[in-house]
Amino acid sequence: MLLSFAVGLLALFLVVKYLHKQSFTQLTTSRKTINWKRFWFVFVLWGVISSSLVLVDYFMSPENYMFNFKLVPFLFLCLVAIIFVPLQTSFEEYMFRGYLMQGIGVFSTSKKFPLVSLYILIVIFLYFGLSAMFSMGLITKFGFFIIVTAVGISLIKSRLAEKIMLLSSYNTLFKILNRNTTSLIITSMIFGLLHIANPEVDKLGPVIMVYYIGTGLFLGIMTLMDEGMELALGFHAANNLFTALLVTADWTAFQTHSILKDMSDPSETALAEIFVPVFVVFPVMLFILAKVYKWSNWNQKLLGRVINPNTENQVGID
Questions:
Q1: Where are the alpha helices (DSSP H) in the chain?
Q2: For residues 108 and 182, is the Cβ–Cβ distance under 8 A?
Q3: How many CB atoms neighbour CB 1 within 10 A?
Q4: Are residues 85 and 120 located together in one domain of the fold?
Q5: Residue 249 sits in which domain range?
Q6: Is the pLDDT of residue 173 over 70?
Q7: Residue 140 banded pLDDT, cuts 50, 70, 90
Q8: Domain end call among 146, 177, 208
Q9: How confident is the model at residue 310 (pLDDT cuts 50, 70, 90)?
Q10: pTM of whole model > 0.70?
Q11: Does residue 286 belong to any structural domain of this protein?
Q12: Of 89, 144, 170, 181, which alpha carbon lies 20 to 30 A from 42's?
């Protein structure tokens, strides 16, 4: 399962390098070089904090855990996890906080952005509506996306689209969407919704999407404020790696030969495990990182307008 993420990461780097003519460093950070000290700082910090939280819960409620340690399977787990889990988390970070966040940000400087976004939303609702009413096979789905793509291109290039883009209300919408917040929210929503197939959703219900989308927002805010992905890469790698090695459960996506096995009923503690990280732990982490790296100008970095230096029609910052 993890091998597919390694292949995806390689493919993403090739697309960025040869299609977009962008370097690995440019995809990662606005700094001249990648600051790996940032990566290791947050990796160790969150590794210690997350592991401590699990161990405290273990000693407070030992009846909820089973000692699952077996030397040989655990050593194989360490080998696989240490190599491939960072590749899995790096693929997700480079896809969402790197490729998509930059791409959506740049596209938001185009006057066509609101129109295209609205069309995509209509297509999404249409797709799920048709899927609910009819059984759509692979060929049907492929044909559907070919048709809506062709129709979309025709509409965007039509005179009707030109007239719509001249409306004052459209220009107001453009100014609203041409902000860093847009790429932050869109990438966080996609990041969260792509986890909807995880077994945790079946076990805990749709409410767990608050955690997934909230995690996406946390990682996105971290990336925008630090003007680079190093902290998000380190946090995500530590979160998945230490969890895989320390604790597992029958109802999670990562089922491993970890040291502990969670035997508790997740429905009893679901609200605490979902809302406490998003509304307590993550804000505290942002506060710590803000102090360590002296973040400032929050309003501009999170809410400010986006400038695309490669276009003549630049949008000013306010």
A1: 2-14, 24-28, 36-60, 71-93, 101-107, 113-133, 138-156, 159-165, 168-177, 180-193, 199-204, 209-226, 230-246, 266-276, 282-293, 298-303
A2: yes
A3: 8
A4: no
A5: 32-107+179-307
A6: yes
A7: confident
A8: 177
A9: low
A10: yes
A11: yes
A12: 181
Q: If you write DSSP's letter for every residue of 24-74 in order, what string do you get?
A: HHHHHBSSSS--HHHHHHHHHHHHHHHHHHHHHHHHH-GGGEEE---HHHH
- Strand order through the sheet with 260-262: 65-67, 260-262, 247-248
CA 158, CA 264: separation in Å to the nearest integer? 58
Residues 282 and 208 in one domain: yes
Query: Tokens 């690995």, residue?
Result: 24
Residues 206 and 262 in one domain: yes
Model pLDDT, residue 48? 96
Query: How do strand 247-248 and strand 260-262 relate by DSSP bridges?
Result: parallel
Q: Which residue has the tokens 């597919």?
A: 4
Highest mean pLDDT among 121-130, 239-248, 259-268: 239-248
Task: Please indicate, yes or no, whether residues 67 and 127 belong to a single structural domain of this protein.
Answer: no
**Least reliable range by pLDDT among 22-26, 176-180, 210-214, 260-264:** 260-264
* Cβ neighbours of 50 (radius 10 Å): 20
In a domain, 213, yes or no: yes
Token code pair at residue 267: 């429905």
Count of structural domains, the chain: 2
> 212-235: per-residue pLDDT in tens?
999 999 999 999 999 999 999 999
Among 177, 201, 231, give the residue marking a domain's end: 177
